[in-house]
Specification:
Largest sheet: none
Structural class: mainly alpha
Radius of gyration: 25 Å
Shape: flat
Helix content: over 70%
Order of helices and strands: HHHHHHHHHHHHH
Distance between the termini: 44 Å
Length: 294
């Protein structure tokens, strides 16, 4: 009896594996004459579901605040919206948001640019990469908030310190993901280009760069929120402007509505930046077959 059960289990496993391999290997057929719903129906469902989730969450928060939770600690969504409206009328919201946006964008640009370049160069030099790898990992493991006092000594408490802190936070994420992408490029494609007479430049431009793009874009996606974290940490440590300063000031005055209002703005900024990187990701991966896209 046990032999029969084992045979059934083995057959089921083989059938599942064959089915999985078949589904992975199959190409995705997209009909040419698709209607509006066929093209955008999935996105409408996803965004509609997200909107419903946010509305339900805010409604539950508003109803529970004061009944189940102490509003001193949780505030209410309507109070948060009133605080945002006040800051909008005073000009505090936009002036401080603009300061943080500058720090985030500059830090992200410098950190991502230098991280991508270092990842491509060092991953192309395997022996040198193995030499410096433990030192890079050690630097990456350092808590970035611990670097803030050192950066204050070096750069002061102005915009420069927050940009450097955000750039350092972004650098290692982009560097490590790009290096992994370069090292995982299919060696068969590189050999094929060389067999066809391609030079090193052809290998880099036609194989390594496109092949490692997935790793680079993954690093950019992961780094977006961390650039925001780096900038806000710098503002929390020492600043008199920016959204981090608004959080610190609101918390010092027991203004939980102000804290939640600032967190809502930071979440909105992170969402917009992630959407921008997502658009770049889709454009960069258009050459891939549909079943191979993330």
């Amino acid at each position: 009896m046990s032999t029969v059960d084992e045979k059934k289990t083995t057959d089921t496993a083989m059938s599942t594996r064959e089915s999985t391999e078949k589904s992975v290997g199959e190409s995705v057929t997209v009909p040419l004459n698709r209607g509006w719903w066929d093209k955008h129906g999935g996105a409408v469902i996803i965004w509609g579901g997200r909107l419903v989730f946010v509305v339900v969450l805010l409604a539950a928060w508003q109803l529970c605040a004061g009944r189940l939770f102490d509003v001193t600690f949780t505030s209410r969504p309507l109070d948060v919206m009133r605080r945002l409206a006040e800051w909008h009328r005073d000009g505090l919201l936009w002036s401080n948001t603009w300061v943080t946006l500058q720090e985030v964008m500059l830090g992200f640009a410098f950190g991502a640019g230098s991280g991508a370049l270092a990842g491509f160069v060092l991953a192309s030099l395997p022996t040198f990469y193995r030499v410096v790898d433990p030192f890079i990992v050690a630097l990456y493991s350092l808590p970035k908030v611990a670097l803030a006092p050192l950066f204050i000594v070096w750069f002061g408490i102005g915009l420069q310190m927050k940009v450097v802190l955000a750039a350092v936070t972004v650098f290692f994420l982009v560097f490590l993901n790009t290096a992994v992408g370069v090292r995982e490029v299919d060696r068969g494609l590189i050999d094929a280009v060389r067999l066809m007479g391609g030079r090193r430049r052809d290998v880099v431009w036609k194989v390594v760069l496109p092949g490692s793009m997935t790793g680079l874009l993954t690093g950019l996606k992961v780094a977006v929120p961390y650039s925001l974290i780096g900038a806000v940490i710098g503002e929390l440590v020492a600043s008199n402007r920016g959204l981090g300063y608004l959080i610190s000031d609101a918390a010092a005055n027991y203004d939980t509505a102000g804290v939640f209002a600032t967190l809502a703005v930071l979440g909105t900024i992170a969402t917009v930046l992630n959407l921008v990187v997502g658009v770049l990701d889709r454009r960069a991966n258009r050459w891939k077959p549909l079943e191979g896209r993330a």
